[in-house]
């Protein structure tokens, strides 16, 4: 099993890179694990307390469960990946059954910040983008998907996203085997990654 980690700051285009890679390889050959599914359940908090959750800090992720699930997949087991709601800040009752495939892609802002998880990756990718481009994408996403007002988006960015990016996410670039500037618009880097995966599938 070829295990690929795709990291990068919030709004950098990670999901676009993942989707374009998946489009370029056989559909039944890849499993996708999202770090966002492993946020700690905070559904018991009040609305005011939930608004102060720092989703960009490593302690917000249940890395022990994520690493356990990666190990189970590598051993050929099926895992029940959690689902998470950013609106309620709680794990949903439903899980997604993920099956072991020849290629496993792990995607998330903090996946290169955890040594145990990092050690389980064969290829580490950091998707890079300008901060103003990331902020624009964050604004659209949070307004449309997470029920925040424009004022709340900017306050959250200033209080959590920007400082956490500088402290925890940007430094993980040094662990990357490949850095992809311009996110999903970097067709050359995506083609190189896709070719590497295809060559592994052919072996």
3D structure, described in words:
By secondary structure, the chain is an alpha/beta fold. It has a single domain, classed as Rossmann fold (3-Layer(aba) Sandwich), CATH 3.40.50.300. The mean pLDDT is 86.
Per-chain topology:
Elements (H helix, E strand, L loop, with lengths): L1 E6 L6 H10 L6 E5 L12 H4 L12 H12 L4 E7 L4 E9 L4 E5 L7 H5 L3 E5 L3 H15 L4 H20 L8 E3 L6 H16 L1
Parallel strand pairs: 1-5, 1-6, 2-5, 6-7
Antiparallel strand pairs: 3-4
Helix pairs in contact: 1-7, 5-6
Using brief descriptors, characterize the structure shown.
single chain, about 200 residues, alpha/beta, Rossmann fold, five-stranded parallel beta sheet, 7 helices
CATH H-level homologous superfamily name: P-loop containing nucleotide triphosphate hydrolases
Strand content: 15-25%
Number of helices: 7
Cross-sheet strand order for the largest sheet: 2-5-1-6-7
As a percent range, the share of helical residues equals 40-55%
